[in-house]
Amino acid sequence: MNLFLRKPVVCNICKKEINHKHRPKREWQIDGLLCGDCYVDQMKKFYELSRRQQCVICAIEKDVPDMWEPRYQWNMKGLLCKTCFDKKDEEYKKLKTFCNICGKKLGMIRYNPKKRWIVKGQLCKECWDSKKAKLG
């Protein structure tokens, strides 16, 4: 009857005998149990790696708090650095405030091009009418 006799458990990294067992996370790709110190060290390593991400456009790696989340209208996933965010925001504002063909400033009434025209942005009435006459 080996009811109270247990084999000593050893940490997988430092090989010390441990009293309290910690199971490593799957992302760490470590088999076996860890002691408290090794668990904390692995947690710090994983946390520091997850704090840095690349910009979706220019691929510069920065800390997550320094990155900007894109606007939902842009249909993008990921984070942007400040310069790329500003450029993308400027492009978007230009698409929304000026006609894409003639460059005239749009007023209150704007015309959205049809999908088959393959025109990005919005159009003024004259450009929309001319496109409609040409392409239908």
Spell out the blueprint of helices and strands.
Layout: E1 9-10, E2 17-18, H1 36-50, E3 52-54, E4 61-63, H2 82-97, H3 125-135
Antiparallel strand pairs: 1-2, 3-4
Task: Describe the protein.
With 136 residues, this protein is mainly alpha-helical. The protein folds into 3 domains: 42 residues, no CATH class; 43 residues, no CATH class; 39 residues, no CATH class. Helices cover 31% and strands 7% of the residues. The chain contains 3 helices and 4 strands. The strands form 2 sheets. Strands 1-2 form a two-stranded antiparallel sheet. The chain is rod-shaped and about 90 Å long. The relative contact order is 0.08.
Short description:
By secondary structure, the chain is mainly α. Helices cover 31% and strands 7% of the residues. The protein has helices spanning 36-50, 82-97, 125-135; strands at 9-10, 17-18, 52-54, 61-63.
The count of helical stretches stands at 3
Q: How many β strands by DSSP?
A: 4
Tell me about the largest β-sheet: 2 strands, antiparallel
- List the quaternary state of the chains: single chain
Beginning-to-end CA distance, first to last residue = 89 Å
> What class would the helix/strand composition place it in?
mainly alpha
Range of strand content: 5-15%
Helix percent reads: 25-40%
Low-confidence stretches are none
Task: Please state the CA-atom Rg, rounded to the nearest Å.
Answer: 29 Å
What is the string of SSEs from the N terminus onward?
EEHEEHH
The total number of structural domains is 3
Q: Averaging pLDDT over every residue, what do you get?
A: 87
